[in-house]
Amino acid sequence: MPSDLLDRILMNPRVPRHVAIIMDGNGRWARKRGLPRHAGHWEGMNAVREAIEGACATGVEILTLFAFSTENWKRPRSEIDALMRLLQVYAEKEREQLARAGVEARVLGEVERLDPAAREAVRQIENATRGGSVLRLNLMVSYGAREELVRAARSLCEQARNGTLDPESIDEEAFEGALFTSGLPDPDLLIRTSGEFRLSNFLLWQLAYTELYITPSLWPDFTRDDLFAAILDYQQRERRFGRVAAG
Ligand code: IPE
Ligand code: IPE
Ligand code: MG
Questions:
Q1: What pTM does this model have?
Q2: Which residues on neighbouring strands pair with residue 141, listed in sequence order?
Q3: Does residue 115 have an active-site annotation?
Q4: How far apart are CA 212 and CA 209, in angstroms?
């Protein structure tokens, strides 16, 4: 599908390496249509496809999607079940297509909390797509940033107690290495759909200097062009990282 926005992005060499998205608004999308909330989650699968295809077209290297938070476990059981089922169906339906497109999918979060069928789906999508070199796709599932930071602290403390790590040597790099996103560059651009201006416990460490973009679109309505619009906006930003402006 030709896109004027895509052409404009590609004229600028400054494409974000890593884009993260808080995929929000599925419930409101469904309510607007008089449908149950899970209908919005299912519809959101098309938007996931759009985001992946759009990321591949622009040259984004890493796409990190917030699919299910630690706090989302507090939702009604029926909604959690629908979301777990959706994860399984997504993994089964899409893994070959993702592998063909060169997408390497990883599921990051407290995967041990998922039920066995969902865990098996995670294993299969990771195995089927291992080695893909076009796009790294992180699906954040049962993920909460505070939990991630606590885990990292615990893991470093254990290494110190075993004598394999000198506490004096703990620096930002060592801490980063204990996070789920270990080894990946921080997101350059964070997109949140549905017009909410908050982080909802997403990537609190990694977003320190990320550019933020909020769109009113509800996640199931999100298209490639919404991604392109966000990237074009990013290309106009001046990132200073605490220094003074260049020139
Ligand atoms: C995002 O949509 C999906 C998840 C959080 C799992 P919501 O389900 O939060 O939809 P709204 O925000 O209630 O509209
Ligand atoms: C954030 O959305 C989590 C995901 C998109 C998976 P929520 O809908 O759970 O966040 P709040 O409750 O509006 O902050
Ligand atoms: Mg929400």
A1: 0.98
A2: 68
A3: no
A4: 9
